[in-house]
Design goal:
The complex is a heterodimer. Chain A is α/β, with parallel strands linked by helices. Helix content of chain A is about 40%, strand content about 15%. Chain A has 4 domains: about 70 residues, no CATH class; about 160 residues, Rossmann fold (3-Layer(aba) Sandwich); about 170 residues, 3-Layer(aba) Sandwich (Rossmann fold); about 80 residues, no CATH class. In chain A, strands 6-5-4-7-8-9-10 form a 7-stranded parallel sheet. A 6-stranded parallel sheet of chain A has the order 13-12-11-14-15-16, with helices on both faces. Chain B is built from 19 helices and 21 strands. Helices cover about 40% and strands about 20% of the residues of chain B. Chain B is elongated, with a radius of gyration of 29 Å. In chain B, helix 11 crosses helix 14. Chain B has a 7-stranded parallel sheet, with helices on both faces. A 6-stranded parallel sheet of chain B has the order 15-14-13-16-17-18, with helices on both faces. The interface between A and B is large, with 81 and 88 residues.
Chain lengths: ~575, ~550
């Protein structure tokens, strides 16, 4: 039964002709109702359900009133009426209100990261939380609930027009995707005018699905959308596939410095030794691994390093050992199962060296490495993708071989001997190890989530300015593709002719039309139809090769700019 | 951008907490609106998009107006608030007094075409006003209304003045909405191409053979032809023009070409006393030998070089013939000859003299296919002259009433008239006076049906037929995304076209281009585009057939 009384601040009921309706202006749905429902709604702001049953007893039967109250409760539960969402949407200007950012993700929002392990989810959630200092953040969710951290959930069902209408009318200032592999959200570009920022957290992987998802987004993006690349290496990688460098914007991620910080190492080692009942950990040099223990993360290399350095302890913290569990692991390799995030600082602090021989195509940043650095633990990593940019000179970077054409998972290899030498070098030189550890902690302090949020907001502002410059009501010139007789070459050629629909005499659009090549006309015609410049780039590259495509596109964009 | 006018759904407007909302009762959704959208909705059925923008930009910031229209576009995209208005109903026939809008481009080109053509256009319009409401659009420059109304000299034409200084309007806006057709008397105005893109009134373009003397004339006509919709037409003054374009425009039959010759005043152009006519001509040109010789009229192409070359060959091959050349200016380029005289029609006096001059001829030859004054064909026929006509196909307007000499078509080589065949035919007709007489009588008989009234009725019937052909514009609107895709197996980047509405269809790029642009270009334009992209005529045909089916 519907819980009453209720404040109906978003509800309006009305008659049209001989029919009656009720609408929730935030949920955007209109429902046709009957007389009983009308009468109940009249009373529901002041009376309880029982009182309403009494009051309407003279007009309707008790069963009838109860049935309507129950169905109203169902309607409320389904989110069609009586929403709590703030409906301040259309009339306030940007100057009057905070930014409003929509976070688009395919899974429910989780505001408590304690049990979250995946780097992408951790990074994404931290970014969302950090944006709260600068914006109202709404995240796609299975309910319209307000989370404890202040993020507002908003229900979105792609098949539901009301859902889409809600997104259209809520006038967001920016949209943040959780991951670029969520290409099911590409159609939202048609409906939400705000700049989209799509993070690329994985460079390669899944047999090319990662790259092709990025290319799919790239094609659909408008001139004021962008990819967020956590390091320049991601941008450099994608520029071998895409021409528009401005689409890729690098914003460094952060690290939770409240959680990850240097601690008393002896105490940390003691804690971990107790957890594992391995007292030898207290006094032994410890080389840590904290990630998925899988080949692409360098698990095999790590095991070989452990075999090469039998005097040290190699502590693996991972969800499982996967198929390595079946293997005969070296006796100095110790496994600790996945821990809640609030315990990770102890574990990282127990490491003397953090070793991640990852050659996976997803190491766009290396958040786990940064977390270790924040704890004052020097990292040893291969020179691969985003890792060198994060580590800088605050760790040891080991030369590696990269497979430049590999877009699947394994994108290179690092020599286990080289890695073991680097690790051993640090283990045997306490002074150097401690200094590097301090340097790592100091460097990590530059990577704050607040800085990430500030840079994100600055990016949104920049994209909004670009959006304003982008002409929405671009002048469209009728384009005709036509054969023509080329007498001198004794052949029939083809060309495109732009005609002028106005009386305006403006060069080059005089009354005799403006002749263009077919490729130029095709580019303009596709853009007139609503295809974006990246789509046109794709088509032109297919038709006339990269170099010519670039020059045609530049010319056409210049023409548009000049005539708009 | 949403295209108005649009039919608004059944709605209920209300206020809640100082905000305005619209409840769309047909779809069951509520939308918040503002004052701008409120005003747009009030006029969404009556005005087009440009008119709405202009009207609201007076009161509100133009950028805000455009933003709100963009918002309404999105709503329409998801099926809210609007339904498209059905196309204007097909009429089974146009009314007794149809409305025809004539574009004024031909006025700008008067100095570049022959006097005969200008006269013929004038006569066409004079006759047209007897059968239709005729509007002619003029740019208003320096208060030129009175001058234009006086100077044009066709009574009954309704001039429509559009302000030249209005930099955003176009003449298209001033066309009466219930117009039954638009007639352009010149294919060379590319600006008129816009008519084909922005409205759905049948558009007829007059193509006169004489303008096809230059590449610009040929290519300008070709561009117009390509841009025609299925209910438009190129209306040629000679039926042998269409086969030439079939070599350039399409591998199949020509659609959209119709022959509507210029009419002939059969009371003025009629058989007369030939001896008397010859005497008068001999006196006029100062050459008494005309009286004793076979006098053959020849209408060469307007290209002076080709025409003079032709004349030399014809003279040499037929020394016993005296040639009377009908050409605007050839006498200045041809050295004096005893067997060649010239008759140029450059003013009204020449026009008035032409029936007498034509009657002096024993026969007439039309050796050229393109770039010739084909308007004289029926005037010769009306005077009862036997005709010799060269071309790709026998001209329908004098079918069975002439001696036809077929030549092989080629768009590239200068048309080389068959001198030997012409000479032989002349000789045969000289020897066979019965045949000559018969041909002359037949020619007169066919010419009589091409009065100016008949021509205008034929034109208006064509407009009426066009109305029937005009289909509702429900071309498919494919939502495609062109995207790069890395083909791991091939190790290369390729382009794919994904269907955003379907689950997985992926199309070949050329086909996808045709699908996405289908509603913005005519079939012939798509054919031209695909021909350039595919370089394979069979593949082009296949793609067009597949896309049409989709």
């Amino acid at each position: 039964m519907l819980q009453l009384p209720k404040t109906l601040h978003n509800v309006h009921k009305f008659r049209h002709g001989d029919r009656m309706y009720v609408t929730d202006v935030v949920q955007c749905k209109v429902l046709e109702i009957d007389a009983i429902t009308w009468d109940i709604l009249e009373l529901c702001t002041s009376f309880t359900s029982d009182e309403i049953i009494d009051k309407l007893g003279g007009k309707y039967s008790q069963e009838e009133v109860i049935a309507v109250l129950e169905s109203l409760a169902e309607v409320e539960q389904s989110g069609l009426l009586f929403s709590d969402l703030d409906k301040r949407i259309s009339t306030t200007t940007v100057a009057d209100r905070r930014l409003r950012i929509l976070v688009v993700q395919g899974n429910p929002y989780v505001d408590d990261l304690t049990l979250v392990a995946g780097g992408v989810r951790v990074a994404h959630t931290h970014l969302v939380k950090s944006l709260l200092s600068y914006a109202d953040v709404e995240v796609m969710n299975d309910t319209d609930k307000l989370f404890d951290d202040g993020v507002q959930g908003i229900v979105f069902r792609p098949e539901d027009k009301a859902s889409l209408l809600k997104l259209i009318q809520r006038k967001y200032d920016g949209v943040l995707l959780q991951r670029h592999t969520d290409t099911s959200f590409v159609p939202l570009l048609r409906y939400i005018n705000a700049p989209f920022v799509v993070p690329i957290y994985s460079l390669r992987g899944h047999n090319g699905e990662s790259i092709n998802s990025a290319l799919h987004w790239y094609s659909a993006m408008r001139g004021f959308d962008a990819f967020l690349t956590p390091t320049e290496s991601v941008k450099d990688f994608y520029l071998s596939f895409a021409s528009d460098a401005d689409t890729f914007q690098t914003i460094l991620l952060g690290v939770d410095l409240d959680l990850f910080k240097p601690m008393d190492k002896h105490a940390a080692k003691h804690e971990v030794a107790q957890m594992l009942n391995k007292p030898e950990l207290i006094d032994s040099p410890t080389v840590g691994f904290l990630s998925r223990f899988q080949p692409e993360k360098g698990a095999g290399i790590y095991i070989k390093i452990a075999e090469l350095l039998p005097e040290a302890r190699f502590l693996v913290t991972a969800p499982t050992l996967n198929f390595y569990e079946q293997q005969r692991l070296p006796p100095n390799l110790i496994y600790l199962s996945q821990q809640p995030r609030d315990r990770l600082s102890y574990i990282l602090n127990a490491f003397d060296v953090y070793c991640l021989p990852s050659m996976v195509g997803e190491e766009t940043f290396g958040l786990a490495v940064l977390e270790a650095m924040a704890c004052g633990v020097p990292p040893v990593v291969p020179r691969f993708d985003g890792l060198p940019e994060v580590v800088g000179d605050a760790g040891v970077i080991v030369p590696a071989s990269e497979y430049p054409d590999e877009i699947g998972s394994f994108a290179g290899t690092v020599c286990p001997f080289a890695m073991s030498e680097a690790v051993n070098g640090l283990l045997n030189d306490k002074d150097r190890r401690l200094k590097l550890g301090e340097k790592a902690a100091q460097r990590a302090r530059n990577f704050t989530w607040d800085a990430t949020a500030t840079n994100f907001v600055a990016l949104l502002e920049k994209l909004t300015k670009i959006q304003k410059l982008t002409t929405r009501h671009r002048r469209e010139f009728p384009i005709s593709f036509t054969p023509y007789l080329n007498q001198s070459q004794r052949r029939v050629g083809y060309r495109a002719v732009l005609s002028n629909v106005t009386n305006l005499k403006e060069r080059p659009l005089m009354f005799d039309g403006y002749v263009q090549t077919v490729d130029e006309g095709l580019a303009l015609s596709l853009m007139n139809k609503g295809h974006g410049i990246h789509e046109v780039e794709a088509v032109l590259q297919h038709l006339c090769g990269e170099t010519k495509a670039k020059s045609v596109l530049e010319k056409v964009l210049g023409f548009q700019q000049a005539t708009s | 951008m949403i295209q108005f006018p649009q039919q608004l759904h059944t709605i209920h407007k209300f206020r809640l907490d100082d905000e305005i909302y619209i409840a769309d009762l047909e779809t069951g959704h509520t939308v918040p609106i503002n004052e701008i959208i409120e005003e747009v909705l009030e006029c969404c059925l009556d005005l087009n998009t440009d008119q709405i923008i202009e009207a609201l930009a007076v009161k509100y910031n133009r950028f805000e107006v455009l933003e709100n229209l963009s918002f309404l576009s999105k709503l329409k995209d998801i099926g809210l608030l609007f339904s498209s208005i059905p196309d204007r109903e097909d009429k089974s026939s146009i009314s007794d007094r149809p409305k025809i809008f004539v574009t004024s481009s031909f006025l700008d080109q008067r100095s570049t075409v022959s006097f005969s053509l200008n006269t013929a256009n004038h006569r066409l319009l004079t006759t047209l006003v007897n059968h239709a409401e005729v509007y002619l659009g003029f740019p208003e420059v320096n208060g030129n209304r009175e001058e234009v109304e006086k100077g044009f000299g066709v009574e009954g034409i309704k001039p429509i003045f559009f302000p030249d200084q209005n930099r955003t309007d176009s003449v298209i806006k001033f066309i009466p909405e219930d117009c039954d057709g638009i007639l352009s008397l010149s294919p060379l105005s590319v600006g008129e191409q816009a008519f084909l893109k922005v409205n759905r009134i049948p558009f007829f373009v007059r193509v006169c053979n004489e303008i096809l003397v230059t590449d610009r004339g040929i290519n300008g006509t070709l561009e117009k032809y390509i841009a025609l919709r299925n209910y438009d037409a190129l209306v040629c003054d000679a039926s042998w023009v269409a086969p030439f374009f079939s070599q350039l425009a399409s591998n199949t039959e020509i659609n959209g070409f119709h022959c509507v010759p210029y009419g002939v005043d059969v009371s003025t152009f009629r058989p007369m006393d030939k001896v008397n006519a010859k005497r008068q001509l001999a006196q006029a040109v100062g050459n008494p030998k005309i009286l004793d010789q076979l006098l053959v009229g020849v209408v060469p192409e307007l290209n002076v070089r080709n025409a003079t070359a032709l004349l030399r060959e014809l003279s040499a091959a037929n020394p016993d013939v005296h040639w009377l050349v009908i050409h605007p200016a050839l006498e200045h380029y041809f050295s004096t000859s005893e067997t060649v005289s010239f008759f140029s029609i450059r003013n009204f006096q020449d026009t008035e003299a032409s029936p007498f001059v034509f009657n002096a001829l024993d026969m007439a030859v039309f050796p050229a296919v393109l770039g010739t004054l084909s308007s004289y064909l029926l005037e010769f026929a009306a005077c009862g002259l036997p005709l010799i006509v060269c071309g790709y196909n026998e001209p329908s307007e004098v079918a069975g009433a002439c001696r036809f000499l077929q030549v092989e078509p080629s768009p590239f080589d200068s048309f080389r008239p068959p001198i030997a065949s012409i000479s032989e035919t002349i000789r045969q007709l000289v020897e066979n006076s019965d045949e000559r007489k018969q041909l002359g009588m037949k020619a007169r008989k066919v010419a009589v049906s091409y009065t100016w009234d008949a021509i205008v009725r034929q034109l208006l019937n064509l407009f009426s037929e066009s109305e029937k052909k005009r289909m509702a514009n429900h071309k498919p609107m494919s939502r495609l995304l062109f995207t790069k895709h890395y083909n791991r197996a091939q190790g290369e980047l390729e382009c794919r076209a994904l269907d955003l509405l379907g689950a997985s269809p992926i199309y070949e790029i050329e086909k996808a281009i045709a699908m996405t642009l289908w509603d913005r270009h005519t079939h012939k334009e798509m054919e031209a585009l695909l021909s350039h992209l595919c370089q394979d005529a069979e593949r082009v045909k296949q793609i067009l057939a597949e896309v049409r089916e989709i």
